[in-house]
Write a structure and sequence with these properties.
It contains seven helices and seven strands; from the N terminus they run βαβαββαβααβαβα. The protein is of the alpha/beta class.
Amino acid sequence: MLPKYDLHIHTNYSDGSQTFEEILIKIEEVDLKCFGISDHFEKGHNHSVSTSANEYYNHFLKIKNIAKEKGIIMLLGAEVGFNDKEILIPENIPNVDYIIGSIHQMPQNLEEEDYWDLYKKYVEKAVSEYSFQILGHVEGYLPVNKFMKPDSTFEDRRSFEKLVAIKYLNLEWYKEIAKEMAKNKIALEIHEMSESPRKEVIKIMIENGVKLSYGTDSHALHQLSKRNYFSEVTEQLGLKEKEFLKI
């Protein structure tokens, strides 16, 4: 049986619209046995949690205890950005169970090819030298604002990301970073909201001993029950429980 968890969920402490309490109710409805809150904790990020570590953590513990009474494991994660110099961990980060490393911030003065070359360097540096557990949405929710029209839709952004992935994030590159990820025990996130990464990428990771993680990256309650891409990938690649992070 595949793991029934979602390790990428945002609350209204960062850029989500849902509270800890509302998320737990929804988790019960969709019959998950484990979930992780992973709000933005990132220096320079507009939606990074601004609350003190103690206040945030105490609220989490209160809901975690309620979840435990219901037989549900509630974990605390953090989504943290990085560049080619550092992982952008702020001072107010609480004691977390895991960190999702994702790229949200890029210099805006580069042309397209140089921009995505630098993106790849960020990833290469991170999986080789930084301490985190999950590589988040490597082909989804990319920092594409620079290339999008002001009236671009959610679908427009996702379509552009797929073109970027094919053009710049080639499979040979993934084979190289997969080796580093396996060595440093960094899992690859299957990202529901962007339906990424490509199945070929997931296959490469598995072949190189990289574990998988799963996250909806939900910012609103209705997104928590979405499992379309996960179901598709699971069926087509024949994924097994042993290929996922063990909680």
